[in-house]
Amino acid sequence: MADQNHELRKAGLKVTLPRVKILQILESAQGEHHMSAEDVYKTLLEAGEDVGLATVYRVLTQFESAGLVVRHNFDGGHAVFEISQDEHHDHMVCLDSGEIIEFFDETIERRQQEIAEEHGFDLVDHALVLYVRPKGSNVTRQDGSQKR
Question: Among 87, 99, 97, 85, which Cα is nearest to 129's?
Answer without folding.
Answer: 99
